[in-house]
Amino acid sequence: MLEVERVALEIMDRMEKVVEAIGRHRRSLADQVDRAAESLSLNVAEGLGRIARDRTHQLRIAYASGRELRFALLIAQRRRYIGEEKELMGLIDRELALIYGVHRRGPYRG
Prior knowledge:
Mean pLDDT: 93
CATH superfamily: 23S rRNA-intervening sequence
Order of helices and strands: HHHH
Number of domains: 1
Shape: elongated
CATH class: Mainly Alpha
Largest sheet: none
Radius of gyration: 14 Å
Strand content: under 5%
Number of helices: 4
Distance between the termini: 9 Å
């Protein structure tokens, strides 16, 4: 398993409590956060299994989902639905960097 996949799974592992906390205040935002986290992980996995343009497309979707997830969490923080979540945000930033790196380097490096 590549590092980009491991980090995606680690993000997913940490999402349950965060989604639950946001859902106590705003169910629609919690659903959006949950969907973005799943999309990030699933598109990383799918992108790594594809080649050429298909691969680029899936990794771009994964990257965009990571940005969406990060921003949705910032909204939740500003509304005081969740705390700062520094560790989770750091993982998301790491994942975005890894996705970018995998996209730039090619299929078999992570």
